[in-house]
Give the backbone structure.
Amino acid sequence: CTRILIYDQRAGGSGVTAQLYGFLVQTLQAAVNLLEECTSCYSIKDYDGGCPACLQSVPCDNFHQDLSRSAGIRVGKHLIQRLE
């Protein structure tokens, strides 16, 4: 079972997650494209960790060492296939 959590950081919610749900496939495709084509880190040979431009969250600097662009691409494509 593959799941994705869309989190609204604003207390009580801003409504953006409900709006995003209607564009989930397009949003996932844009995320996969970003991971596949990130010009900031894609050209670094054998580097799969991502960077703040494509995968890492600047406000959250924990657990970046465990992030993987290739895994994100695989999961994103799987989700897109399941949703279409």
Summary: The chain has three helices and no strands. The radius of gyration is 14 Å.
